[in-house]
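User: My collaborator sent over this chain with a note saying "see what the structure looks like." That's all I know about it. Can you take a look?
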Amino acid sequence: MYGIQVSEFGSEDVLVHTELVVPQPGTGQVRVRMRAAGVNPADTYVRSGTYEFFRPELPYTPGFDGAGVVDQVGAGVDTVKPGDRVFVAAQGTPGCTGTYAELAVVDAIAVHPLPAGLSFAQGAAVGIPCVTAWRALFQRARLQPGETVFIHGASGGVGLHATQLAHAAGAVVIGSASTPAGADLVRAAGAAHVLDHGSAGHLDELTRITDGRGPSVIIEMAAHLNLEKDLTVLATAGRVVIVGSRGSLDFTPRLAMVKEAAILGLALWNATPAEKADALAGVAAHLRDGALAPIVVDTLPLREAAAAHRRVLEQGTRGKLVLIPE
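Assistant: Without extra context I'll predict from the sequence alone. Here is the result:
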């Protein structure tokens, strides 16, 4: 079989498309013939060798997320069987990488039924993006029906799913996007309002839209750019959940005092098994009822993994980028 192998940490150039040994499932494991593999920013951090949460032994095959058909099951597995359509959400499980390949062996706990109405590419978009969105909204922010939530970068992989989930939960959703095409995706996902985050002062619009109250919850994808301003527009006793940050900032702590705000960090790697199971159960229920429909904007052949790693970090990325084994 063929897949991507990383033999040294570094830039995307270390992603090599090559022939690999066919993996065999052990006790409690499942082998999946991958039809699609999701590309996440976390994949690029792991590849660099500097990611504080996870550093795999070399050589390794990247990829936490994917979808395909069960090919073989190991001893003790009765949750799925050969021929089942499934999605893989392996982040946080032992030996959790490996979906950038034609065949991947993962723990059975990482394999979940893929609803008939979803494509394999959509299934590959579920794992990290949807679980992150669920955890941000419901496990960290404790979002309630009727509250207003503002989602920075709502046209991205996490943002679109957070928009869909918050809308399904009965919240009023305001999102931001940097392009008209991205704004259209955010509206279609359930946002009542979409702001142009390339426009100076766009966060001031939140005060007008909410009649001066501000949003109760802000999902923040770039805290190094926005956190201080978030606290000036947040509702009193509001919550800011930091999903992403790529730098430092000068910060005025008094702003948090004035709003009695809660600033909540999120790292998916810190989720307990119970929290991850809760998130996956909620995500799976909304996949079945149609409230959550992963949005794949583009696919690339698996051999173009290096290009995918460059693109997933670009500004203005819309929806999900997925790799397809040849």
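A starting point for your reply to your collaborator: The longest strand covers residues 29-38.
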